[in-house]
Amino acid sequence: MKNKLTRTFLLGTLLAVSNLNAQKNLPAQKKMEWFQDAKLGIFIHWGIYSVNGISESWSFFNNYINHENYMKQLNGFSASQYRPEDWVQLIKDSGAQYSVITTKHHDGVALWNSKAEKSTTIPQNALAKKDVLSPFIAELKKSGLKTGLYYSLPDWSHPYYDIKTRTEKRYDIKSDTKRWQNYITYYQTQLNELSNQYQPDLLWFDGDWEHSSEEWHAPETLENLKKYNSNIIINSRLNNHGDYETPEQGIPVISPESKFWELCYTMNDSWGFQPFDNHYKTPNMIVRTLADVISMGGNLLLDIGPKADGSIPAEQIEILRDLGRWTSKHKEAVYETRKGLPFENYKGKSAISKDEKKLFLYLEEAKDFTKIYGLNTFPIAVKIIGDNNAKVDFKADGNRNLAVHFSNIKFDQDVTVVELSFNEKISFSNPVKKETLSLQSILEDKNTKNSVFEIAEQLYDGKNIFNNSGLTNDGLNMKIPTNSKTNKETLSWISKHSEALFETGKGLPNGHYSGMSALSKDRQTLYLFVEGTPTGPIALKGIKNNISRIRIVGEGSMINHNIYNKLYWSDRPGIVYIDIPKERLDKNITVIAVLLDKPVELYREKVGAIESNL
Q: Is residue 150 classed exposed, middle or buried when 0-12, 13-18 and 19+ CB atoms within 10 A define those classes?
């Protein structure tokens, strides 16, 4: 039952905002349309933690620094180089359609001049002595971008909140309900201020794991927010009362179950500014991450962490500018797109236009051709976006499988986009039908690249045509039958890569690698088939194993790899990026062997909101 204080508070709020609520309450699908169309947003973590460059809030909560010393950072938060108009221009130029800024993190420091009881604010308590939120929101709205406000439900600094640090509680809310109700009034007062002053399009909650929906008064909070904006969009961190899921850091292996979702993602390993965190992903990795997210039907909320003076680190500016280069070139393949083809139909990343009459293929490599399987509708035109001189030929076989060949292509430095246009809505079959070619017919094909592709494809599908063929595990003394029509180049490729073909089986399921793969008989060596010339390091997701070593098959070179987004508090694997020297690429298909510490274990769990990072 609601407390009398809360009832009185909410009634007062209702009267105060009734004249603001002139919006028509849209159906859920219509309300979420702008969000689903947006595809890219920019997250901003800015607070006093940028002064010393330490973890936002968690550094004192986890007892890495005491609370008093953490809060001393208020004295160094100057915002002296803060240019909100420059922030917004940079965000807009990146191609983002909305931005979400931390109005208050778990440390309780508000960027605006909050009047809620016992608030700690930048205008009243920091060196800056000014409201730094309002000018940014004003510029954001002027630009036409959607406004998102991050708000932490917990406030580990507030005397009315029950939890102080990981090992310390102030009180038990069951035995001191009045004090807890005072906190509910405090946080709802702040939400009312944010709603009234800034009229956000989206509220991004965090920290709901510390209390139940009932304790947070979550349903009442949501209803109250709707009084300001009946079409307010809420993320999933209000104890499941939100509109969309917010997986954090780990790029999903498979699409989240929710129709609407957003990956919140850092450029390095930190949300706020940390001067010693130089583990930045390259602009190429970020663009490819955006393509990955789009292909799964989600949004990317990419984070920046400004310094205490309000300037943005140069590395982050570079990433945003390269992102803007790619999004401006490929607008039709980014915005208003929907989830792409299943992996069985296209072994890569793809998306479908909102009207379902265009298919976009995202190529992360320069190559001669690609294949799409099971298309029931036939394209009327195929082109490379941004390259008017490109030549693209396409032809379907009797099973409605489409081969698309490229020539005279100026491949993009990050991701090349192929656009297929249709007269009617795209229709595809799953499972697909393929003609299984014999080893002899493959060997007699004069086009080595076609032959090698067919070999890799059959292996990926679990059909090893080399069983009992005369192939040897080292490629020497092979007894594979040949004749005068045998393509010697194909035979040479088979000999060179025999270890990846001899007694190997079906590769990784969809989502782990954007291409074809195979597994050794003991399932401890993963073979990745790399087409063409990749624009950057190839990526592996959802591999639980430790990696012992990685090498190029057939010539023995050991190559390096880097792991990003492996969080110490999560069992979700990081993403593995493998650098392949361009001078060592095979002109047909390169094969990479990844030796694991034990038989492969895959992470394919449902992806939702992060519940805690204690």
A: buried
- Residue 16's pLDDT is 41
Give residue 282's pLDDT band: very low, low, confident or very high (50, 70, 90): very high
Half-sphere exposure of 564 (CA within 13 A, CB side): 25
Cβ contact 561:581 at 8 Å: no
End-to-end CA distance of the chain: 31
Angle at 434 between CA 431 and CA 437, to 5 degrees: 150
Chain-centroid distance, C-alpha 580: 23
Please work out, in degrees rounded to the nearest 5, the angle formed at the alpha carbon of residue 354 by the alpha carbons of 420 and 36: 130
3 state DSSP class of 105: coil
Task: Write the DSSP string, 22-50.
Answer: -S----HHHHTHHHHHH-EEEEE--STHH
Both structure tokens of 132: 């730094």
Summarised one tens digit per residue, pLDDT across range 209-262 is 999 999 999 999 999 999 999 999 999 988 878 899 999 888 899 988 889 999
Which of 4-8, 93-97, 259-263, 407-411 has the least mean pLDDT?
4-8
Dihedral angle, C-alpha 194, 195, 200, 203, nearest 10 °: 80
**CA pair distance 14, 210, nearest whole angstrom:** 28
- At 63, list the tokens: 């007892």
User: Does the bond joining 599 to the residue before it have cis omega, within 30 degrees of 0?
Assistant: no
pLDDT tens per residue, range 171-212: 999 999 999 999 999 999 999 999 999 999 999 999 999 999
In angstroms, the CA 75 to CA 128 distance is 8
Dist CA 614 CA 610 (whole Å): 11
pLDDT > 60? residue 34? yes
